[in-house]
Design a protein that fits this description.
mainly beta, Beta-galactosidase, Chain A, domain 5, 10-stranded antiparallel β-sheet, 2 helices
């Protein structure tokens, strides 16, 4: 799928959503044509609004990980800055029964971003707030240098982490080696 918005004063905004047939994840990309001398300085992408239903819960990587049951919550905002102890991985899930909506950024360079959840009595909004690097504004074009990955896993959030996040993490420079191969200090290996 390819979505395009035209703004006569500022250019075009393109969102491309592709389906990875090997994983059944949708991969979301954002690109913007910008006039000469302009730059993109703030982005919220993607931003997904869902109808709140009974039995939903949020799994967030906040600190060591947290689970929020959303029943009875009508005004809740949660954010986690990555990379930091606030967000140790770049994924979260919204669960209902055994189904998990996987919401992640597959960013091999670990750029700064804030995962945000807003819960009202009617909706749940998942988004990623990004402060772009000036280097992402090149020759009148802006693009985010990673994909946002969304998918529904029928076997729960643990399976989405194992099937989708783990292969991504193991493909990164920082995830290719074990702590022993990296010669991590003993105190780190003994933690948790």
């Amino acid at each position: 799928m390819h979505f395009e918005w035209e703004f006569t004063a500022t250019g075009n905004i393109y969102t491309t959503v592709t389906l990875d047939n090997s994983t059944n994840l949708t991969e979301w990309d954002l690109c913007v044509d910008i006039p000469e001398g302009w730059s993109v300085v703030d982005v919220i992408f993607p931003r997904v609004r869902l109808v709140k239903q009974g039995g939903m819960e949020l799994i967030s990587p906040h600190n060591w990980g947290v689970r929020y049951e959303l029943d009875g919550i009508s005004n809740f905002n949660h954010s986690s800055v990555y990379p930091s102890s606030q967000a140790t991985v770049r994924m979260m899930t919204l669960n209902r029964n055994k189904n998990a909506l996987y919401f992640a950024t597959h960013d091999k360079n670990a750029n700064m971003k804030t995962f945000t959840v807003q819960v009202s009595s009617a909706n749940v909004i998942l988004s990623v707030d990004i402060t772009p690097s000036e280097s992402w504004n090149v020759n009148g074009e802006f693009s985010i240098p990673w994909t946002a990955s969304l998918g529904v896993h029928l076997n729960g959030w643990e399976s989405s982490a194992i099937d989708w996040y783990r292969p991504f993490a193991l493909s990164t420079e920082w995830g290719k080696k074990t702590h022993q191969q990296k010669k991590s200090p003993r105190w780190l290996l003994d933690t948790d």
